[in-house]
Every structure is written in C-alpha cells, then in structure tokens.
Amino acid sequence: MSFRRSLLLLLPLLALVLLPDRGQAADALTQAQTDQVNKLIHDYFMNNPKALIDAVEHAEASMKDDEQNQAKVALESHREELEQDPTSPVLGNPKGDVTIVEFFDYRCPYCKLTAPTLQTLIGQDAKVRLVMKEFPILGKESVFASRIALAVKKHGKYAEFHLAMFALKTKVDDAQTLEVVKAIGLDPAQIQKEADGADIDAILKQNYDLAKQLNVSGTPAFVIGDALLPGAVELKDFQDAVATARKG
Fold first, then answer.
1. pLDDT tens per residue, range 27-83
2. How far apart are CA 241 and CA 229, in angstroms?
C-alpha cells in the first residue's frame, strides 16, 4: 500500500480518535476552538513528521493483521469445499498429509510457469496432495479448456491432460485443447459432448463461488493450510508453507 493511500485511510481515523463524537464536539467547542484544535493537530504533524509515518505504519500493520485474520477464518470455514470436494481432481498423493489447493487457468502464463515447480514439489515430497480447482477467468478458450479437463477426469486421464496442456508450446485455444485430448488417447468428439454437461456447469459455478468467498480474483492462487498464496510461487516458498502446515 502506498504512503499516500495509507495517509488518506489514516486521517479519518485520527479525526475519530481526536473528536470521537462530532455531535458532542460541536456542542462542546466553538468554531474558533475547533479551528484551534485543527491547527494544533496540523502543526504537531508538520513539526513531527516521523509521528505521522509511525502512525501510518502502525495502521498498515493493523490492517494487514485484520486481512490475514479474515482470510484465515474464511479458509477454515470453507476447508471441506477446498480440500475434500470429490469433483475436484487430485494430483500427487491422494492420501497425503498436507493439501495444496490451486485455483488456476490453462491460459494463465503464471500458472504455466508454476506448473513444473509443483511437479518438482510433489516429486520430492511424497506426502503432498494437490487439489486442482478449475478457475477459468481469461476468456472463452479458458472456459472451454476447463470444461474439457473436467470431462477428461471422468476417464481417469486428468493428470495426463493437465500436464500436456501446460507443456504446450503454442497459445491455448479450442483446437489445441482438442489435440491434447486426442494425444492422450481419448475421442475429442465424445469428450466435447461430455464437457457440455450440466454437471460441469455446477462444478465451475462452485469454483467461482468459492473463489469469491476467499477473495481470490486472479490465477494462480494457492491455499496451503492457513495460508493463501497468490501469484507464481517459488519452490522454497512452497516447501516452507508445506512445512508450516505439517507442523500445524
């Protein structure tokens, strides 16, 4: 958060602290006295700029703590949907002791960048369970790819499809998605038909609703224990988050 934005947020709080009840203040102080108080406040911060900086930093830290606490409560209240939804594909160890949940889009460059890192992680740590939340937000091609992926899941080849999609050297579009389906040994026409099912409508709606509840608006976004990690994540950060979740 910028200093200017923090200051704008802080000023009303200062007013509430110094003049907690405007009605009472208006009754207790004349206009001249109110002007004098305002001048004292102004002069104090002009003569003690560090006090204002300290106040802003304190406000930022307090807001950050509040946001983290709210996120933790939201994650806990939706834990079952996040980790145990049978409609969500699972990679890694299905019986792992730590679950990573990823909201992702097949056309997201940061998801593509992170995909090999996740494969390295689950290759190194045999107790990590990776739950995939199809969250197509980057256009109709993304929606098509997610629908196809969920149809492929019914045939037991989700992992192959998922890895092949992120291994593509070209831009993801409908034709490329169907080529991947063919490459893993499934009938593109049949899969496309299944992808139009109402059951897949329901899965995607549930994922969108869950993301909204958790304030997830971009991809990738990872939930590991009580932590919500947005954006591309480095291997070391994944390892640290897994270790923390394992202890907790």
1. 567 888 778 877 877 777 788 888 777 777 766 666 555 555 566 677 899 999 999
2. 9
Give the HSE-up count for residue 168: Cα atoms under 13 Å, Cβ half-sphere: 25
User: Quick one: tokens of 37?
Assistant: 């108080």
- By CB atoms closer than 10 A (0-12, 13-18, 19+), residue 111 is buried
Structure tokens at 247: 């202890």
* Among candidate residues 216, 94, 229, 98, the one with its CA nearest the CA of residue 158: 94
Which residues are CB-neighbours of 228 under 8 A, at least 6 positions away? 71, 75, 214, 216, 221, 222
Average pLDDT taken over every residue of the chain: 87
The ranges assigned to domains in the chain are: 3-72, 80-247
Q: Is the backbone of residue 119 left (phi > 0), alpha (psi -120 to 50) or beta?
A: alpha
What is the Cα gyration radius of the chain?
25
Rama region for 103: left / alpha / beta (φ>0; ψ in -120 to 50; rest) = beta
The arrangement of strands across the sheet holding 128-134 comes to 90-92, 128-134, 98-104, 221-224, 227-230
State which fold the 80-247 domain adopts: Glutaredoxin (3.40.30)
The alpha carbon of residue 126 and the mean position of all alpha carbons in its chain are separated, in whole angstroms, by 25
Q: Are 125 and 242 in contact (CB under 8 A)?
A: yes
Kindly give the pairing relationship between strand 90-92 and strand 128-134.
antiparallel
